[in-house]
Amino acid sequence: MRAAILAVGSELLGTERMDTNSLRLTEALESHGVELVEKRVVGDDEARIAAAVVDLLGRVDLLLLTGGLGPTADDRTREAVAGALGRDLVPHPEIVDAIRERFAEMGREMPAVNARQADVLAGARVLANSRGTAPGQLVEESGKALFLFPGVPAELLGLLESELRPWLATRSTTVPVRHRILRVACLPESEVEERIAPLYERWGRDGIGLLPSPGDIELRLSVPGEEHERLEAMEALARRCLGEAVYGEGRASLEEEIGRLLSECGLTVGTAESCTGGLLAERITRVAGSSAWFLGSIVAYADGIKERQLGVPRQLLCEHGAVSREVALAMARGCRERLGCDWALSVTGIAGPGGGSEAKPVGTVHMAASGPGGRERALLRRFPGDRRMVRRLSSQWALDLLRREVL
To answer: How far apart are CA 76 and CA 47, in angstroms?
Structure first.
C-alpha cells in the first residue's frame, strides 16, 4: 500500500505553526508497513486543495487529509474534496444535533456556522470525533481510500487510534516496521552522532535516525517486524553509548520523566525563576498528576523580589550580580526553605535581546539545584538564539540538571 499525507491550512505555510500531525500519521503508517511516498502542505484555497487531491489520489492507494473541517469560511476541505471526487455534500441532521448537545454541555448555544461541520460527502462513512465538533470522514472507491481528519492535534490523535489504526490493521499485507525511540537531553546533534558511531559500524545507517529539537534529540531505531532481537541489541548499545543523557523512551517528555522519578522516590520540587518567567513551572504542570510532587514556584524577576521572597542577600547581588552562580544557588536555597520542598530548582540569566555585556553576553544563564542533605549543584551555560530560544533551552537544561541529581 502506498500513501500520501495532505495537510491543509494557510497557517502551516507560515513560520508560527508546525505540521506535527503528519509525524503522528507517518508513525501509524510505518507501524503497519505502509509506504509513505509524499507529504504536502496546501493553504486554505478550495481549488488548490482539490487539485492536490486529484494529483495524489492518482498516484497512491491511501490519502490522509488533515485540517479544514472547522466551521468558518476558510475551512474548505469538505467542498474541495467533494469537487475533486465529483460527489455532493449531504447535510446530516443527527450530526448537527450532536454538535448542539456538545455546546450545551459547555453551557453555550451552538453558533449557526457549526452546522457546516455536519456536511458529509455522499457515500462517505462518518468517523465519530469524541474530542471535538468536526467528525472525520472516510471515502473508499475503486481500491483507494481517502480519510478526512480534523486539524486539531488532540482530535486527530483520537481518530488515529479509533479509526485509522484498526482500518490499517485489516488491510496491511506487508511486514510492519518496529521502532524504538530513545530521548536524549542536552547533547548537540553532532555529539550524539559521534557517540552512536558503534551502531553505524555494526548495523549501517539504515534504520537509525536522529530528530533534533532544542535541547532534546529523538533517536529512532527501526527494524523489520520479525527482527525483535536486533532491535533489543540496538537499544542496549545505544544506551551504553549515550549513558545518562538518555532520559526516556517513546513520546515521554523530560518533565514527565522527572515526575516519574520524583513520584518513585516520594520527593517534591519547587522552582525559583528569573529569566524563564515561570516557564519551568508551566512545563512541570503540563504533566497530569504533577500536584503530587510539585509544590509551587516563585517568579522573582526583580532583584528586590529575589531579596524579599527568596532571601537572596543584597551583598551577593551587589558583588556578583543577579546573573551569577552565587545568586542562583541562593535562589534555590531560598525556594527550598520557603516552599518546604525536597528539591528546588533555580534559573537566572540574560534572555536578551538587550541586557548583555562583554563579561555576561546575552544567553548567559546560571542554574542551580538544592536538595536534601545539603546537596547542591550549579551550572553555567551560554545559549545561542533569540529570547524565546534562550528561555526554552534554559528550562530544558535546568530540568535535566534536576533529573541527573535525583537519579
So the answer is: 9
Cβ neighbours around 313 below 10 Å, total = 14
Where are the alpha helices (H) located in 32-150, listed in sequence order? 46-57, 77-85, 93-105
4, 40 Cβ separation under 8 angstroms: yes
Q: Which residue has the cell 446530516?
A: 92
Measure the CA–CA gap between 169 and 16, rounded to whole angstroms. Answer: 35
Element (H, E) at 246: strand 246-249
The candidate with the shortest Cα–Cα distance to 126, out of 102, 153, 96, is 96
Q: Which helix (H) or strand (E) holds 183?
A: strand 177-185
pLDDT digits (tens, 9 = 90+) for 258-311: 999 999 999 999 999 999 999 999 999 999 999 999 999 999 999 999 999 999
Domains of the chain, CATH where assigned: 2-169 (3.40.980.10), 177-249 (3.30.70.2860), 254-406 (3.90.950.20)
pLDDT tens digits, one per residue of 124-154: 999 999 999 999 999 998 899 999 999 999 9
Contact 268, 294 (CB under 8 A): yes
End-to-end CA distance of the chain: 45
